Amino acid sequence: MAREISEKSAGHIVSITNTETLYHGLHNPVIERHIRTADFSLCDGVGVVVAGWAWGHSVKRVTGPHLQLAASHYGQARKWRHFFYGGKDGVAEQMAERLTARYPELIVCGTYSPPFKALSPEEDQAIVDCINATQPDIVWVGLGLPKQETWIQEHLGRVNATWMIGVGAAFDYHAGTVPWAPPFFQAVGLEWAFRLAREPRLRGRRYGRSLIFVVRAGLEGLLKLRFLRPAFAAATHPSRPGRSAATSSG
C-alpha cells in the first residue's frame, strides 16, 4: 500500500471480507468481482477464519476499523491524504475531528456524506469531481455492505485515488456515534455477538445467513480435505508390500 501511494499509482482496492461479503459474492457478480480483483482481500470476521481452517488455510484477521486506525497512524509521517465518503449526515466530519485529535499529523483532505437517494449522473459526477479536487491517497468508503463495494467498483477509473477501501461501520465507531465492541470482544473475534446483542432485529437475519454459509463452507472443506482427499489418495496410490525388498534383492 505504501509503495503504491508513494508512486501515486491510482486504481487499487482493498476488500474487507467477512462472511456476509462472501454471501453477497455468491449471489451478486459485482461483489464477487470486488473480492476476486482486489489487490488485498482481508479477513474481517471469525467466520472466515473458521471456514479457512476447514479448507486447510491459516487466515489472519484484519478488520476494517483497525486497518483505518493503522493507516491513519502510519500515514502521518508519509503525508497520506485521506478522504472520508459515506456515513449519515455529519458522521464523516465527526470521524475526521476525532481521528485528527488522536493523530495530530493526519491529513483529512475532505469528507462527504451522500444523500440517501439515487443520484443522477450529473450529481454523481459532481461528487467525483469534488473528491478528485482534493487529491486523496486513500478514499475510505462507509456506505455499508454491499453498497460500498458496488460504489467502489462503479468508480474505479473515475476517482483518482491510489486506494479505495470500504470499511462500513468504522465510520460510526470512529465518530463515536455507535459503540465499538470492547477490546476483549475484538480480540477473540466476537464483535458480531456484541452487535447482535445491541441490534437483534437488524443483525439477526444477516448473521443467520452468514452462519449458514460458514457451516456449509466448513463442512464442505472438512469433508473434502479430511475425508475424501485421503480416501482418494489411498485408492489411487495403494501401498505395495514387498516392493522395497524386491528392489534391494537385485
Mean pLDDT: 83
The largest sheet has its strands arranged as 2-1-6-5-3-4
Give the strand tally.
Answer: 6
**Uncertain stretches of 5 or more adjacent residues:** 231-236, 240-250
Detailed description of the structure:
56% of the residues lie in helices and 12% in strands. It has 250 residues and is α/β, with parallel strands linked by helices. The protein has a single domain (2-180), classed as Rossmann fold, CATH 3.40.50. A six-stranded parallel beta sheet has the order 2-1-6-5-3-4, sandwiched between helices. Residues 231-236 and 240-250 have low confidence and may be disordered.
Task: Give the tags.
Rossmann fold; single chain; alpha/beta; 250 residues
Secondary-structure blueprint of this entry?
Blueprint lengths: L1 H6 L4 E6 L1 H9 L1 H9 L2 E4 L2 H9 L9 H11 L6 E6 L4 H12 L4 E6 L8 H13 L4 E5 L4 H9 L7 E4 L3 H6 L7 H5 L3 H8 L1 H37 L6 H7 L1
Parallel strand pairs: 1-2, 1-6, 3-4, 3-5, 5-6
Brief summary of the model shown:
The chain is of the alpha/beta class and 250 residues long.
